[in-house]
Design the sequence.
DNA sequence: CGCTTGATGCAACGAGTTGTCGCATTAGAT
DNA sequence: ATCTAATGCGACAACTCGTTGCATCAAGCG
């Protein structure tokens, strides 16, 4: 590696700065996220931040990258309900995590920076892939219609939780996560998330 | 009324300003919503805005009040599925409306101004009341468990649509609305939105 | 019609913020 | 021990923000 190691000054600075970004977002939201404020909080000169990150969005982007790079694990409980519940609880964990909450709010506020959008897109792609494995297994067990769309399921699991966080400001607890999982299971079993007939093979 | 009439200069100024607020929000988002920008766009001197609205949040609040005061109508199609579909399509209409979209994004970005939060709370209270009527009728028809929680249903209908708008940036179309309605219907019928046993009446 | 009153236009301001620069200093690698 | 890149430092011009005093205007009223 040509990069300085984790113990190097550069890495230490980055850690301190990105942590300061989260702190600042938590306290003041995206509106209060200025380069100066982050610099003061991190104990780093603001010129350094301008040189390395350029803009406020650069800072947000780096913090977001660090956060979104966590791996998505696929549950395998043996039942659709169990798997969906695990996924909902993972989502809950992100949404109640300090950094997760700060970053999600910031992303929504940041309007649509292209680079940010790309990170979000990549995250959901991975998430959908993970859900697809669950769905496939459930279909093999006969718990679900074979043409169930994983993207629909993926979105539906998280939606009520994001709704509580961003829109209605309601509490985020495990009961909410479990209810969301149960609702998705019921809807999926009922065939609501079935893909529209693609090439009319089974038409009369 | 001691207020100048709708044709008065004051009223005309207010209309022009609030329209400018929506335009500005649409183009730049909450981050770009400055008093100066709105003043320029509305063709009104900024001192006037500071005198009447005080701050940027005052402007947003007034625009939001004007928008949120629209009445919520209760559908009555005779079936649970029909009613839920109507509700989902109403939500879709708000979420695809220019002003609605601008204001919803702004509210999420505005962090939590107390007065804004109060308006949101009031909106959802009315919405929940409306859904409660639907749910009650459906329960009377035997389409739903009697102890179905209207707030759960209310939240679940809108959630996938808000999710598409705010989080995943996916398209908002009537297919999405109808799917959401169908999913909620299936989940509600399955008893997912049933209130937890309150005073243990039916326990062994 | 002319008068009164409150709302608006106008220009200027001081305070604070933002992003950049040249140069000195330091930490880490070789 | 030395070299290099990263950081610290202070100053700066350009910009934004909110306020103020005064002139002007529009709407209602007799």
Sequence:
């Amino acid at each position: 590696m040509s990069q300085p190691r984790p113990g190097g000054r550069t890495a230490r600075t980055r850690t301190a700065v990105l942590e300061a970004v989260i702190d600042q977002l938590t306290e003041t939201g995206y509106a209060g996220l200025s380069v100066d404020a982050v610099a003061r909080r991190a104990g780093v000169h603001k010129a350094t931040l301008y040189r390395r990150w350029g803009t406020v969005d650069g800072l947000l982007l780096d913090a977001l990258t660090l956060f979104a790079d966590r791996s998505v694990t696929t549950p395998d409980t043996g039942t659709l309900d169990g798997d969906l519940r695990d996924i909902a609880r993972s989502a809950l964990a992100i949404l109640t995590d300090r950094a997760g909450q700060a970053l999600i709010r910031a992303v929504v506020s940041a309007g649509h920076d292209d680079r940010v959008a790309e990170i979000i897109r990549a995250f959901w792609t991975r998430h959908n892939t993970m859900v697809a494995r669950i769905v496939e297994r459930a279909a093999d067990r006969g718990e679900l219609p074979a043409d169930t769309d994983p993207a629909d399921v993926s979105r539906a699991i998280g939606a009520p939780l994001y709704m509580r966080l961003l829109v209605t400001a309601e509490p985020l607890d495990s009961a909410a996560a479990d209810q969301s999982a149960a609702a998705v299971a019921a809807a999926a079993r009922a065939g609501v998330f079935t893909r529209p007939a693609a090439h009319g093979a089974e038409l009369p």
Q: What stands out?
A: The mean pLDDT of chain B is 93. Chain B touches chain A through 37 residues (CB under 8 Å).
